[in-house]
Amino acid sequence: MIRSRWVSLLVWPAVVPFAAWAVIRGGGWTPVWQWVALVAFTPYVAAASAVPLLLALGLRRWGAAVVALVASVALAVTVLPRHFGDGDQPAAEGRLRVLAANLAVGAGDTESLMRIVRTLDPDVLALQELTPAARGRLEAAGLREIMPHVVDRAADRASGSGIYARHPLTEKPLITLGGFRQARGVLRHPSGHEIEIVSVHPCAPRHDARVACWSEGLRALPRAGGQLRVLAGDFNATLDHSLMGDLLDSGYRDAADVTGNGLTATWPERNWESVPGVTIDHVLADSRMAITGFGVHSLPDTDHRPIFAELGLPRFTGH
Known about the structure:
membrane; 319 residues; Endonuclease/exonuclease/phosphatase family metal-dependent hydrolase; 6-stranded mixed β-sheet; Endo/exonu/phosph_ase_sf; transmembrane helix; hydrolase; 2 domains; Deoxyribonuclease I, Chain A; alpha+beta; 12 strands
C-alpha cells in the first residue's frame, strides 16, 4: 500500500502539468502574463507529453494514463497539422511574392539581404526594426532600383518599419501602439488587384507592462474581408496564441502552415538566445489567395530568419 502511494505520487505530478497545458492552451486563457511567452513552446510540450503517458502505462496507473493520453492527443491535434501541407487551394492567376525580414534594430547584413532579394525576386519586401541608417545602406546597395516604391517608416531603435515594392504603393495610416510603428500600404498589382500590405511588428511581450501593448498591436491589425490583404512580418506570436487564431478566423491563412512548414522556427537565429526556436514570423494571406510556396532563410547579424511566401491571386473581375 505504501509503495503504491509513492508510485502514484511519482506519476501524477508528471501528468498534471501536461494536462493543464492542454486545457489552458485549448481554452485560449492567459492565467498569468508569463503564459504569453510560454505558450509559444507548445510544440515542444506536445512532443514531451509522450513521456508521462509512457510512465503511467509502465507503472500501470490507468487513471493517470487516460489523462495523459487525452492531454497528449489534444496537444498533437493542435500541433501536427502544421507539419502537413494543405492541398486545398483556390484557383489563381496572378502572382504575388512576399519577403519579410526583421533587421534587429537595423543590424541585419545589407549584402546578404540584397542577395536574398535578387535571388527570390519578391514583389514586396516588408521590413521590421528598420532604422534610417539601415535604410540608407539598403538603398545605397540598390534596393530602390529593384523595388522603387516605398512606405518608409524607419525609426531609431526597434520601432521602425517599411515596405518596398516593385509596383505602385499608396501609404495607409500607420498602426502605432506602444511606440511600435506597423507600416501599411496598398499595392497596385499589374493584374488589376489592389492589395493592402502590412509590415507587422507589435510589441514583444517580454514583461507584464508590454503584454497589453502586444495584444493591442495584434488586435489593431486589419481583419480579412473586402479588399485583399497580406500581413507579413514579426508577429511576436505563434499559432498557439489565441490572438493569432482570431486573425486566422477572420479569413486569413498562414503560409507556413498551409505549405507544411508551420513548425519551422524563425526565432531566435543561432547564437542569439539560448532558448528553443519558435515560429513567430508569418505571412498571413487572404483566404481567397492560393499559397504556392514558403521558405525560411538566414540573415547574418539579426535574431530573426527572413520568411518568403509565393501567393496566387484570384481572377480579377474589375470594379
